[in-house]
Backbone:
């Protein structure tokens, strides 16, 4: 008969106190672990659909991938350290420091990310994985940022010779804070790299100077293969031409006509002055000015006509429009009797005009 487990936190699924585990958010580093496993499951028959599915699983639709590194000016020779023959792997070191270095930064969009990872394996790489050490996480409203200053990109090369390349640098990742937790921005700054050759290969060709000379040459540049570097350079060249290709695909124009149209529109935008915001015209309302003299005269005439009535209406409450008189202010440059520029014109019910100064 089986004994009951002594774990105090154990709860049998058939007992009355069975509790399900509460759902939890996946850690960002675990997503890198899942990405490494997915890269290891790649086969030689993996096509573009497989790489598109890989990018869809781990990258957002508007994700960007940025690589920053320094390239030496021209090919350089490497020498094998013979003092480490007792080790399993031999460190390949730079023979002479480069005379000039160029700083490069390549940023590609979401549509080019699948092709970037595929070019890594097309350059002779058989295995690729990332190692994060002492990473720092910061949580925001809608994203999680992972900053790892000790990141290593490890690649196993099968050709032209079996070599292990460790590329070290700083990796900054921004994940979306949701259930999928996909990468929104990827920025890898390469600081240094090491190429490691098994000592068994050196022992096998110890008496062959030509093979040793071939082993002393580097097979990567800053840990990247020539296939990957050429692809990144191609992305830099084709990025400004996206407008031309889009116009050619939309309007079916020749490359020369597309270039002419784009240059003409750009020239128009440069020459044309900036458009000013349209302002609505303000309508000025003329204020009605009632002359005191016209008011007093019209009230006197009304009082004279209403002598038969016992109750008199005050002049302040009289409406000129109800009595058939309308005071229209009329300003002219001819001064009146008192030198005023404005005088009023009274309109009688018979249609005659009578000026009141």
Residues:
């Amino acid at each position: 008969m089986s004994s009951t487990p002594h774990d105090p936190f154990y709860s049998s699924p058939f007992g009355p106190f069975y509790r399900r585990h509460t759902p939890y958010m996946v850690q960002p580093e675990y997503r890198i672990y899942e990405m490494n496993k997915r890269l290891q499951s790649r086969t030689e028959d993996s096509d573009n659909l497989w790489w598109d599915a890989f990018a869809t699983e781990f990258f957002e639709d508007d994700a960007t991938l940025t690589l920053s590194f320094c390239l030496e000016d021209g090919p350089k020779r490497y020498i094998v350290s013979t003092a480490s023959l007792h080790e399993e792997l031999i460190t390949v070191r730079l023979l002479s420091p480069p005379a000039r270095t160029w700083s490069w930064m390549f940023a590609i969009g979401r549509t080019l990310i699948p092709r970037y990872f595929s070019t890594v394996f097309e350059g002779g790489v058989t295995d690729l994985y990332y190692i994060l050490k002492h990473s720092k996480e910061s949580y925001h409203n809608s994203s999680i940022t992972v900053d790892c200053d000790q990141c290593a990109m490890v690649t196993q090369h099968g050709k032209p010779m079996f070599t292990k390349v460790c590329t070290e640098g700083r990796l900054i990742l921004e994940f979306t804070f949701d259930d999928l937790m996909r990468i929104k921005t990827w920025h890898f700054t390469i600081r240094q790299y090491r190429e490691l050759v098994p000592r068994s290969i050196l022992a096998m060709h110890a008496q062959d100077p030509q093979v040793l000379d071939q082993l002393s040459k580097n097979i990567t540049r800053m840990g990247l293969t020539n296939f990957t570097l050429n692809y990144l350079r191609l992305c830099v060249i084709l990025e400004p031409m996206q407008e031309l290709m889009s116009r050619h695909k939309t309007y079916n124009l020749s490359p020369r006509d597309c270039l002419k149209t784009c240059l003409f529109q750009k020239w128009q935008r440069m020459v044309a002055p900036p458009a000013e915001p349209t302002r609505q015209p303000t309508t000025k309302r003329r204020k009605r000015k009632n002359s005191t003299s016209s008011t007093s005269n019209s009230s006197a005439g009304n009082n004279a006509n209403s002598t038969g009535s016992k109750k008199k209406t005050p002049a302040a409450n009289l409406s000129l429009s109800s009595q058939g008189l309308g005071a229209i202010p009329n300003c002219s440059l001819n001064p009146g009797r008192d030198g005023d520029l404005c005088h009023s014109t009274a309109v009688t019910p018979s249609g005659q005009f009578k000026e009141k100064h």
In short: Residues 18-24, 74-99, 309-347 have pLDDT under 50 and may be disordered. The CA atoms of residues 31 and 238 lie 31 Å apart.
